[in-house]
């Protein structure tokens, strides 16, 4: 099987890719999860470790994914099979593509429910339904919104239909055209919110909180959460970035593009922090209030401020757009696969996928009301989707992709695709062979509950483990290379 010469679709420009990939990366993870995790794990120290993880794990793996996509020019399944065959390796590696595609689909099944919260809050903000005089009152509003399956289902269905409409239109007319205005729009709204926050009286405190790097304050759990979040926020190991990479024109530099996307993603997360925390601090609220931060504390804080309702509306418009540009990317892999490998038209593929997605996401939505006690091992269906994808499938997929690129494929492939200088390439190879896999294994050990790592104390062991990894890997890899040559 050879690399497809002319892909069906390409981004109109390199910026089309950057905007779409940034749109995928920037989502609920940045605006909802990142601020509340930073709040829970104590601020600056968490931010610092998260940035380190983006650099050491996220960026190298993102380069690999884009490389697979562009080299293999296809959906995750086809692209990975093609690059493996090109190196004379088993087509079985395409299992990684299957898992990634399934992972994207599963994430989307619960993501549309959270995105539905965002749209419903937008509606509440507009129609004046977000009035309460305490966090408890806001919690009651949140609870009531979830309690009625017809209400909650309406909002998640709306998100599902919108997503499928955009994806059905195709790469250039659907995805690229929409991210072109949504992404700048989002950044402008964030900027407005930050300017507002500057005058709220809590800005200095927020700066200290976010950028007061005190490593001592970080727990082992915080370190692991930071690593897991680096995966989630860059949309890795779930088919999204790989499929977008398959539409990247040949000339553009994967390394430069990856850096741009990762930097934009990080900036938006930090900007979201700068927009949210000043408002929280100015109103004397607790930054560590967990997942309810933006659905309970923030609306309450806004209510007590001038132009609060307007800001609230801007905030939830922005959150909805961020969620939509991510949702699109999660389903693109499946639609592309049905379209290219099964010859189903894009529109039919979108609606077909959309119907299955609607059924699964409706089951996830029911976890908040009638299905609240359909549990297995204490987890609802919604929880299972989240748990399986973020604890298992993303780390496993990322590990597989890193090892495939680092040890199994011919080195020339990534030399050609990444186009790095000799020294840069050596650094990338070192990261992808050792640093990223070790980071992932550490996440795993913790997720499996084998042991709880306290990296504040155990970092010398981690360095030792890295040295062992490097020694074993470098001993084995010449043999692998010989095998490939022979
Ligand atoms: N990165 C997105 C966020 O931060 C979520 C997301 C989009 C995602 N596509 C993904 C997460 C694929 C995992 C896999 O909200």
Summary, kept brief:
With 486 residues, this protein is mostly helical. The protein has helices at residues 14-25, 28-40, 44-72, 76-86, 94-127, 135-147, 149-168, 171-198, 203-211, 220-233, 240-245, 254-282, 293-303, 308-341, 346-366, 381-408, 411-418, 422-447, 455-485.
Number of helices: 19
Largest sheet: none
Shape: globular
Structural class, by secondary structure, is mainly alpha
Ions, cofactors and other ligands present here are: tryptophan
- Roughly what is the average pLDDT, rounded to an integer? 87
Describe the secondary structure blueprint for this structure.
Blueprint: H1 14-25, H2 28-40, H3 44-72, H4 76-86, H5 94-127, H6 135-147, H7 149-168, H8 171-198, H9 203-211, H10 220-233, H11 240-245, H12 254-282, H13 293-303, H14 308-341, H15 346-366, H16 381-408, H17 411-418, H18 422-447, H19 455-485
Helix pairs in contact: 1-8, 1-12, 1-14, 2-10, 2-12, 3-4, 3-9, 3-10, 3-12, 3-16, 3-17, 3-18, 4-5, 5-7, 5-14, 5-15, 5-16, 6-13, 7-8, 7-14, 7-15, 8-12, 8-14, 9-12, 10-18, 12-13, 13-14, 14-15, 15-16, 16-18, 18-19
Bound molecules: tryptophan.
């Amino acid at each position: 099987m050879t690399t497809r010469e002319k892909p069906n679709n390409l981004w109109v420009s390199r910026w089309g890719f950057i905007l779409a990939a940034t749109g995928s990366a920037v989502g609920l993870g940045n605006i909802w999860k990142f601020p509340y995790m930073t709040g829970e794990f104590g601020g600056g120290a968490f931010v610092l470790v998260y940035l380190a993880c983006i650099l050491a794990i996220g960026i190298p793996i993102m380069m690999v994914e884009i490389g697979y996509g562009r080299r293999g020019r296809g959906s995750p399944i086809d692209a990975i099979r093609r690059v493996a065959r090109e190196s004379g390796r088993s087509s079985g590696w395409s299992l990684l593509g299957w898992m990634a595609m399934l992972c994207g689909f599963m994430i989307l099944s619960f993501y549309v429910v959270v995105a539905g919260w965002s749209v419903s809050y937008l509606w509440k903000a507009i129609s004046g339904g977000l009035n309460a005089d305490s966090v408890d009152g806001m919690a009651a509003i949140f609870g009531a919104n979830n309690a009625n399956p017809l209400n909650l289902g309406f909002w998640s269905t709306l998100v599902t239909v919108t997503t499928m409409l955009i994806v059905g239109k195709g790469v250039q007319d659907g995805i690229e055209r929409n991210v072109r205005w949504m992404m700048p729009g989002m950044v402008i709204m964030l900027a407005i919110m930050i300017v507002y926050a500057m005058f709220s009286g809590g800005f200095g405190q927020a700066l200290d909180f976010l950028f007061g790097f005190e490593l001592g304050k970080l727990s082992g759990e915080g370190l692991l959460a930071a690593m897991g979040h680096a995966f989630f926020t860059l949309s890795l190991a779930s088919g999204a970035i790989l499929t977008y990479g398959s539409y990247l024109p040949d000339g553009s530099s994967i390394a430069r593009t990856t850096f741009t996307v990762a930097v934009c993603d990080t900036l938006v997360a930090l900007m979201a922090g700068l927009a949210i925390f000043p408002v929280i601090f100015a109103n004397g609220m607790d930054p560590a209030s967990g997942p309810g931060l933006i659905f309970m504390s923030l609306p309450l804080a806004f209510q007590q401020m001038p132009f609060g309702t307007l800001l609230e509306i801007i905030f939830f418009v922005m959150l909805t757009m961020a969620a939509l540009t991510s949702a699109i990317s999660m389903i693109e892999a499946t639609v592309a696969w049905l379209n290219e490998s099964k010859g189903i038209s894009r529109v039919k593929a979108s609606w077909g996928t959309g119907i299955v997605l609607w059924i699964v996401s409706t089951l996830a939505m029911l976890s908040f009301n009638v299905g609240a006690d359909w549990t297995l091992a204490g987890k609802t269906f919604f929880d299972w989707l989240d748990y399986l994808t973020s604890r298992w499938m993303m780390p496993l997929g990322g590990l597989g992709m890193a090892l495939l690129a680092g040890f199994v494929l011919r080195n020339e492939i990534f030399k050609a695709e990444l186009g790095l200088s000799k020294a840069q390439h050596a650094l990338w190879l070192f990261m992808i062979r050792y640093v990223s896999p070790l980071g992932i294994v550490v996440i795993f050990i913790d997720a499996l509950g084998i042991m709880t790592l306290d990296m504040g104390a155990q970092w010398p062991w981690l360095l030792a483990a890295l040295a062992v990894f490097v020694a074993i890997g470098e001993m084995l890899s010449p043999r692998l290379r010989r095998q490939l040559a022979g």
